[in-house]
Amino acid sequence: MAQINVNNLTFYYEGSFDTIFDQVSFSIDTNWKLGFVGRNGKGKTTFLNLLLGKYEYKGSITAGTVFDYFPYSIKREYLDQPAIEFAEELKGDVRQWRILCELSLLGLEGDVLYRPFGTLSFGERMKILLAILFSGEHDFLLIDEPTNHLDQKSREIVKSYLAGKKGFILVSHDRDFLDACIDHVLVLNRHSIEVQAGNFSSWWENKSRKDAFALTENEKHRKEIAKLKDASLRARRWADKNEGTKIGYNPKKEPDRPTRAYIGAKTKKMESRVKQMEIRISKEIEEKEGLLADIESPADLKIMPLKHYKQTLISAEHYGLFYKDGKEPLFQDLGFVINQGERVFLNGDNGCGKSSLIKMILHKTGGEEKPANLEEEGVMHLASGLILSYINQDTGFLHGSIKDFCRVRNLDESLFCAILRQLDMDRSQFGKNLEDFSEGQKKKVLIGASLLTPAHLYLWDEPLNYIDVFSRIQIEKLLLSFKPTMLIVEHDVMFQQQIATKTIEFSAHSGIMNMSGMTSH
């Protein structure tokens, strides 16, 4: 067991006006299971790279341990090789028997190590890389968002796996995942960094209490400042009025009037009282400043759902999708109804046809070309004149400036930038090209565009990948307030529990989907 000590850490990217870390100090234990939480762009991945020694910085980071980072960078040539052939290139001290042991904990047979890596599912690849990561000795592991693009079943397996490990920093925005895997939290607040024992939920509960106390104290200070300012203003008026009585003073004609010396002394006393009040005001303001510095108070987002003249927007009977040259259908015998105001979640393993169903709906409304080689069976009816708003799970197509993006999508640029600001994206990012944004910022671009697009039905395919916890809570509040009609693929358990009115479950064996109702919100 060792400690990682960070002292007076200061870092900023060359050519950037933003300081990522400014005189930051804290300590963490290498025996902890540490969850790393913060807004997109606050510096989580940057800090992991600083631990790895990738950037120069001011201050000091001392650690009596070796770091290893996940996810590994996979070269193009690795896709044609079995993982066993390039495992040592990823982790030098790896042993085959250790990898096999870790794979069994992840629910995989050892034969996946000997199949070409590119032929494996995304979930299988992720589990192999995790097995390689944990097959070393005495490393402190830096695990950066391991659940992105994993289906719910794979997330549950990885969650159970990490819950049995220790000695790592886990960057994740999935609250349920964090709660199951960690025993400490490292939080990048707006203006401070804190380390706390417990999981995400216990930290959030403590933060909520602390924020409520800070708001109460802030209100007390605000009222005290107002009273002091009012008293100071009155005293200042009295002093000025008293000083004015010296004008026109004639001691022979007005022997009973106070002398100039008396008036001056009284004025001086009043001036002293004003000065003391101003000092007290400054002190109150100083105490008030910082009280709200770390409070998350996201703006209320808005969405513009359209009302359709029909109550039922989509219905399907014995519907299925299959590839012409495929042996098995993606799914079959599907029957479901989506009515206005419902938020329907698609659940199932990766590759079971969730995204294909969404793309076929887009195709039927003229929003996208028919997926290559994909055929239908059964019947799916869409209400005529249906207008859709779509979030693609892929962000690779984003390029060019925000101005270009808004012009192509026919969006009001000022309104679009206002939504990005409400999603906590800094104005300094707006001058960059979209391809230079972080993955979380790219997702916010797609979410912002969807919110600004009036639609009867919102199709969101894994919208929350890379999106920070605070923005997820912000989006939850939005959807519960405006209740748009939605068809969603999203594996964040807490998000689904909050938002879903129905789920469509894809059976892993038969490919048949079943509709299950959830508590209405």
Query: Given the C-alpha coordinates, what overall shape results?
Result: globular
- Give the helix proportion (percent range): 25-40%
Radius of gyration: 30 Å
Q: What is the mean pLDDT?
A: 85
The CA-CA distance between the termini, in Å, is 47 Å
Q: Report the sheet with the most strands, covering strand number, pairing sense and barrel closure.
A: 6 strands, mixed
> Hey, roughly how much beta strand do the residues contain?
15-25%
Uncertain segments: 508-513
Cross-sheet strand order for the largest sheet = 5-6-7-3-8-9
Oligomer: single chain
Determine the number of helices (DSSP H or I, runs of at least 4 residues).
Answer: 14
Secondary structure: number of strands: 18
Structural class: alpha/beta
